[in-house]
Amino acid sequence: MPINQEEQLEVKHYIEELLDLYTEDEYENYLENIIYHYCNRRFNMSKNEAIKILYKIIEELK
């Protein structure tokens, strides 16, 4: 289920906060699961969609 721009902005802000807490090595172990559970709970999103958004936003922030 695609999310709108407002929801994507909400996820982006959440990811920005989390990126301060985790190193790149920890993304797969921790960040993917945190973002999946957040997106699933807020937007009923699948794990694949949530992870795709996570790495898309990470790339935008670089």
Number of helices: 3
Could you spell the SSE succession in H and E letters?
HHH
Topology, number of strands: 0
Low-confidence stretches: none
Please tell me the total number of domains: 1
- Main pleated-sheet profile: none
Structural class based on helices, strands and sheet pairing: mainly alpha
Which bin fits the share of residues in helices? over 70%
Task: Based on the model shown, name its key terms.
single chain, 62 residues, mainly alpha, 3 helices, globular
What's a quick, concise take on this entry?
This protein is mostly helical and 62 residues long.
Report on this structure.
Helices cover 76% and strands 0% of the residues. With 62 residues, the chain is an all-alpha fold. The chain has one domain (5-61). The protein is globular, with a radius of gyration of 11 Å.
Topology record:
Blueprint (H helix, E strand, L loop, with lengths): L4 H15 L7 H17 L3 H15 L1
Helix pairs in contact: 1-2, 1-3, 2-3
